[in-house]
Amino acid sequence: MLSNKTWLGAGAGILAGAFWGLVFLAPELARGFPPLQLSAGRYLAYGLVAAVLVAPSWRKLLRALTWKEWRALIWLSLTGNIIYYVFLANAVQSGGVAMTSLVIGLLPIAVTLVGSRDRHAVPLRRLLPSLLLSAAGLLCISWQSLAMGDGRQTGSAFGLICAIGALVSWTIYAVGNSRWLARLDHVSAHEWSLLTGVVTGGQALLLAVPAFQFVPGRHSSADWLWFTGVVTAVAIFCSVVGNGLWNKASRLLPLTLIGQMIVFETLFALLYGFLWEARWPTGLECAAMVLLVFGVLASASAHRPS
After folding, report:
1. pTM, entire model
2. Among the residues of 65-123, which ranges form H helices?
3. Which tens digits make up the pLDDT trace of 199-256?
4. How far apart are CA 38 and CA 45, in angstroms?
5. Cβ neighbours of 183 (radius 10 Å)
6. Do residues 85 and 238 touch, judged by C-beta distance below 8 A?
7. CA atoms of 169 and 161, how far apart (whole Å)
8. Closest among 40, 148, 130 to 86, alpha carbons compared
9. Which of 48, 104, 160, 175 has the most CB within a 10 Å radius?
10. Kind plus residue range of the DSSP H or E element containing 28
């Protein structure tokens, strides 16, 4: 049987995936705005909301954190938020939701492989069934994406490159963030998430100047109001709530299992994509989702105490 701690961490990871899946729809909802503006707007909103929420604990946190922790927050904010979302938004707009969610779906495999090198980690041979099931699920989606190609080879190639960049960037963040949360016993997972948001908001200020000053495009007041609503909703639900749940899961689960929880971002992104496109999943997409879920179950089974 899995411990209550593992079940709680898995639940938090699944809910985080449900909120994060919404990120893939944002570029479609605000398609008239380029990825740079979407990224700047989202993280400016994230920074403002996080600053308000963390304000009551600000003095305590300033005393508790050293420059080493602040430097880690700067690096994690850059790789896990700014760089990742610029790549992601470009990938969605150039290659589509399905292709992007496919490549991002490799995150569980990448994070699990890195985590298997940690001390006291579950041996890689016990994780092999889970990794093979996840890889088979991703292969089904990739085959489906190739079969449904629409002739936009150039755009799809650019989207694929951006999706791979997002994959690498977020793998670095996931591993680094999990290891920092394991070291910090005087800062809660939610506080660490809010501090990441404050730092990300500061970085977004530097991104906002080129994003809104030099990027061409004319929009009406209604367009800007819609844009503000989209990026604010993404900031609250995906960044504040989603990141807080993810940090909770990261503190409760080993890296080799938390990596598999990222599968749920892919599953929910696919679900939202089907709803957005108003269609049922194909046979290959159904098979992919089933394989991905069984991959998570196999990983959880591998982490059961002997």
Report:
1. 0.80
2. 67-77, 83-95, 97-104, 107-115
3. 999 999 888 888 787 666 677 888 889 999 999 999 999 989 999 999 999 888 887 7
4. 11
5. 10
6. no
7. 12
8. 40
9. 104
10. helix 26-29
